[in-house]
Amino acid sequence: MTPAPVTVRVPAKVNVQLVVGGLRPDGFHDLANVFLAVGLHDEVTATPADRLRITASGPDAHQVPLDETNLAARAALALAARHGIEPRVHLHISKDIPVAGGMAGGSADGAAALVACDALWGTGATRAELLAICAELGSDVPFSLVGGAALGRGRGERLEPVEVTGTFHWVFAVADGGLSTPEVYRECDRLREASGGGHTAADLPEPQPTPALLEALRTGDAAALACALANDLQAAAVSLRPSLADTLRAGTEGGALAALVSGSGPTCAFLAKDPEAAESVAEALLSSGTCRKVRVTSGPVPGATVFPDGSPD
Ligand code: C5P
After folding, report:
1. Concatenated DSSP letters for 238-269?
2. Which family, according to the similarity comment (predicted)?
3. Which of 15, 83, 159, 198 has its CA 20 to 30 A from that of 129?
4. Predicted local confidence at residue 310, as pLDDT
5. Of all protein residues, whose CA lies closest to atom 9 belonging to ligand 1?
6. Count of CB atoms within 10 A of residue 221's CB?
7. Does residue 229 sit in the same domain as residue 93?
């Protein structure tokens, strides 16, 4: 009997603190990366097929690569190789997370495809095995699997739990066109070098999240979280895309508690006091004309989750 299709829903993330340490010999940077999963989701559906095939739908689907550079394809290949099976699967990505926006959309699809293929093929991979494959696929992929909130150490893939109370309300301003993550890290190194800072991992102490950030998450205090938000990649993203400074300013003037670039950008994230404040920040951003579209959502939300009946809703 042909197995029924499996659909997995997976969230976007925002980095509430992204502390970038030194450049390592392997080309990655040591990080203290505090992730929060937020309620913008992609859905990946795995259906039996004669060969690996990727399709995508959604307003930005034309920007999604449909070849083996797609993390969803790489996830299926990695799981199949480990279990000695052929990756005969059609993966359909229903895309709602901004593409190349610094919200881990590609990573989310990798984590979702892995969980979907595991269920479709009955490979029965343990959580530890899934996390190990995620870490091979990319630095943010393990977090997409687990969701909620977590501190990522190493290059961001070694996760530690972070306690969160309640829900935080966010507005995301989506820019036209993406930014390349490696380019943003390179620009971060260039800016640091230009300002005379040391830049190898050996020169710098291990990056750490601030106690104030962890306390704000633990107590569910949005005003305190606003003061603790920080992204060491922000200056680099703004340097590469100077118009982001206007977007950040428009959201702050529109009533956000705080504004920051999400991950490597160019999506900008705005923390709001409550859902009503989030709506009015969104309106202010839209009327400012400094972004392509806005999304209002909240977090934390769970990580990659199989729909019990194999299809959403
Ligand atoms: O791991 P991932 O594929 O998401 O990384 C993409 C690129 O981002 C890496 O090739 C590297 O240039 C940069 N990166 C980094 N340090 C990290 C994570 C990513 O320099 N901790």
Report:
1. HHH-TTHHHHHHHHHHTT-SEEEE-TTSSSEE
2. Belongs to the GHMP kinase family. IspE subfamily.
3. 15
4. 47
5. 182
6. 17
7. no
Which residue has the CA at smallest separation from atom 15 of ligand 1?
28
Residues 114 and 236 in one domain: no
User: Residues 199, 202, 207, CA angle at the centre, nearest 5°?
Assistant: 75
Core vs surface per residue 171-204: b (16+ CB within 10 A) or e: bbbbbeebbebeebbebbbeebeeeeeebebeeb
Q: Which of 142, 162, 182 is the last residue of a domain?
A: 162
Q: What is the ipTM of this complex?
A: 0.97
Dump pLDDT digits (tens) for 107-154.
999 999 999 999 999 999 999 999 999 999 999 999 999 999 999 999
Q: What is the CATH number of the domain that holds 125?
A: 3.30.230.10
Closest to 172 in 3D by CA, of 96, 271, 31: 271
